[in-house]
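Hey, quick one: can you model this chain's 3D structure?
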Amino acid sequence: MPAGLVALALGSFGIGLTEFVIAGLLPQVSRSLDVSEAAAGWLISGYALSVAIGAILLTAATTRIHRKAVLVGLVALFVLGNLLSAVAPTYAVALLGRVVAALCHGSFFGIGSLVARRMVPPERASRAVAVMFAGLTVANVLGVPFGALVGERWGWRATFWAITGIGVLAMAAIAVWVPAWAGAVDEAHRAAGLRPQLRAFRSWQVWLTLAATALSYGGMFGAFSYIAYTFTEVTGFSSADVAWLLVVYGSGLVIGNVAGGRAADRDRDRTLIVSLTGLAATLVAFGLLADGRVASVILVFLMGVFGFATVPGLITRVTDAAGGAPLAAGANVSASNVGNALGAWLGGLAISVGLGYTAPLYVGATVVTVGLAVMVVSARTGRGRPTSVGRP
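Sure thing. Here's the predicted structure for all 392 residues.
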């Protein structure tokens, strides 16, 4: 495995920690900065909105700059944001830190996925992307427990200091281990600038893949957003059990990411269709069997497996359809965050109208099924087109 992929995985681990860790720290932050729970919640919502915006704007602004230099700069922005949160004297500064840290998120994964692909042969492209995203999936497993443990022992600011340190290590690793040639922008792209990347969005394959991304993420995270309520109010687990149940889910993400990357290198569209079918079926089964403890543990694990098995294939698919345009990779991250917000809203709406705590699972299954239909249409209309553009 190229050392450069390890460096990118370390960066994605730090970014993933920043995204997920705050969930376990909100009560402490709320008390420390003397704000309401709703205001503290904006440390999550503000982050997500900043991710969606930054993925497009920063990717577009850096299109002519050497991609390795861009990645180092993005991680520097990440370090700055977490440092602001660590030293924040007020809630406003803490929120600013979250927004600044989030700006790098989408561009890092979009541009980083292109750099990762260049470090391996074309037939291993999806696996290379999976290695980079492995850091994110591990962060999903460890993020909330890590934040809760460090925060409980040394205070919530210590958590952000630790993440800042991880960011510094990642920045150094990318600077040293990612080869310069992997981040080079060819002269044609440099001279043309942003216009060819915008033209890539004329492709229906790009838009269909982005739609499939938003719907697949929306279905899974719409269900996941309320999974703690399902476990405690329907299955009968205690609130103390939720932490290890989330670890089970996160373990599924790790396995699904790796398996999905390998399978996508063999047959990408079939992998995506099978994964989305499996995710929809799992969510329906979970809704039906949520009152059983053993079934719930198995199904939340499968939810993670099928949910993240789509990630490497969707990213390589949209960048291939866009001719390797970094802006399309950034748009894919934005689409996933839009889907997350949509899914969480629909799941909450289902609960608010009295459909119960299993309703988000059925809503999620419906959203994923629509995404599956979009993916089937995209696969059929894309037949005969090349599935790879080599090394973008």
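One thing worth noting: The longest helix spans residues 125-154.
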